[in-house]
Specification:
The complex is a heterodimer of chains A (155) and B (246).
Chain A lengths: L1 E12 L8 H13 L3 E2 L3 E12 L3 E2 L6 E12 L6 E10 L2 E6 L2 E6 L9 E11 L4 E6 L6 E4 L1 H4 L1
Parallel strand pairs in A: 8-10
Antiparallel strand pairs in A: 1-5, 2-3, 3-5, 4-5, 6-7, 6-9, 7-8, 9-10, 9-11
Chain B lengths: L1 H8 L5 H11 L12 H4 L13 H13 L6 H6 L5 H7 L2 H13 L11 E3 L1 H18 L9 H12 L6 H8 L9 H10 L4 H7 L7 H34 L1
Helix pairs in contact in B: 2-6, 8-9, 10-13
The chains are: A mainly beta (155), B mainly alpha (246).
Chain lengths: 155, 246
């Protein structure tokens, strides 16, 4: 599920970037550092939609870098237990199949014949969080879940 | 990863049995198997996959094994439950799987995002990301700026999962449901799934069943309105494809 959330991060900037475009440089650094990352608490940061506030910079002792606390709004994607998702099958093996919904991979333990690139509707029954990835397990064994369309019929 | 995960994939009721099996695999005498190996369960890799169980369940697994007439040695498995190895097999009994099958259907949406976040429906996200994508198309003349892979995947997902023409129309249809006890997460689920019948809604969002008497009517109306919006979108798509045929 997608969320719009305000997050805060301390950005460090080297003095060579100081000047009239300090703010722009800070924002591009933020975008480069944060977009595409994943945290356990918030999920995948899909896109930054705006910067709310940039606090006063503090010079770090010993290095000369300056730390700015930045508050920004972003769209995050995080799967939840109990959520229903429509995913595309990416890999099939003996144990079941892997499907992808956005940036998240979901494994479904299943013994129905299924093809790669099929669309399935599944329910997330468990989530696991790594440092940089969220991984889920799902099921298609309940009512109204299962294959939506096969790759042959998709066109 | 899949192998390791597959041990954790089994249903919650097998959680303890698995923990004890791992204990025995380590070669240590499993005298402490009556106490589950919480360390394994709380390992960050399996966090969320396997739930901790009270001891009562562990014992009931042994009981279930003795009740289900599988192979011989039921009594011995009960005695040896402490050893863990047999308990794993016993835990594989029918009771474990049916309990998990029942609980899967009843698993309710478990949202625990911080309070300052707003849920976005796929249709809203599709519109938002479309704007950003257009912005990026201008900025991408600068070779240093590159959209991350997760942006593209999420954008694709939101576009494909979007059954409706505009997010505004969907919001207008679904917002009134809040008065009837439907919370944000449930509204978002309904919008993302695009259900066709009321039974589908209750099957896929079991938490709504609790207040069914209150919300059934409004949800039915919302579904009819959503069906109109969906129809409008497919008409639009048909029209645009007809243009190319001419």
């Amino acid at each position: 599920m997608f969320f719009h959330i305000v997050l805060e991060r301390n950005m460090q900037l080297h003095p060579r970037h100081f000047g009239p475009h300090l703010r722009d440089k800070l924002v591009s650094k933020l975008i480069k550092d944060v977009e595409g990352t994943c945290s356990g608490r918030h999920g995948f940061v899909v896109a930054i939609t705006g910067v709310e506030e940039i606090g006063k910079g503090l010079i770090r002792e010993g290095t000369g870098y300056v730390t700015f606390p930045v508050k920004y709004q972003c769209v995050v994607f995080r799967p939840f237990k109990g959520e229903i998702l429509e995913a595309v099958v990416t890999m099939v093996n003996k144990m079941g199949f892997f499907a992808e919904a956005g940036p998240v991979q979901i494994f479904v333990s299943n013994h129905v014949k299924i093809q790669k690139e099929s669309e399935v509707r599944l329910k997330v029954i468990g989530t696991r969080v790594d440092a940089t990835e969220i991984f889920c397990i799902g099921t298609i064994k309940d009512d109204f879940l299962g294959v939506i369309s096969d790759p042959g019929a998709a066109v | 990863m899949a192998d390791r995960g597959s041990k954790g994939f089994s249903a919650a009721s097998k959680g303890k049995a698995i923990a004890s099996k791992r204990g025995s695999l380590n070669g240590r005498p499993n005298s402490s198997a009556n106490i589950p190996h919480i360390n394994v369960l709380s390992d960050s890799d399996s966090d969320g996959f396997v739930e901790e169980l009270p001891r009562v369940n562990y014992k009931s697994n042994g009981k279930a094994a003795s009740e289900s007439l599988k192979s011989g040695g039921r009594a011995s498995s009960k005695r040896e439950a402490g050893k863990g190895g047999n308990a794993y097999n016993a835990g594989k009994g029918r009771k474990g799987t049916t309990a998990s099958a029942k609980s899967d259907a009843e698993i309710k949406l478990d949202l625990d995002m911080p309070p300052n976040s707003t849920i976005l429906m796929n249709c809203e996200v599709a519109e938002l990301l479309q704007e950003i994508h257009e912005h990026m198309a201008i900025l991408s003349e600068d070779p240093k700026i590159k959209m991350p892979e997760s942006f593209d995947k999420a954008f694709q997902y939101a576009k494909e999962g979007n059954h409706f023409t505009t997010a505004q129309s969907v919001k207008q249809v679904l917002d009134p449901l809040r008065k009837y006890g439907v919370n944000d997460g449930e509204i978002c689920m309904i919008a993302n799934i695009g259900p066709e019948t009321i039974e589908e809604v209750y099957a896929l969002v079991p938490s709504l069943k609790v207040t069914r008497s209150l919300n059934e009517g409004p949800i039915m109306e919302a579904l009819t309105a959503l069906a109109d919006i969906k129809a409008a979108k497919s008409d639009l798509l048909n029209l645009s494809s007809e243009k190319y045929l001419i």
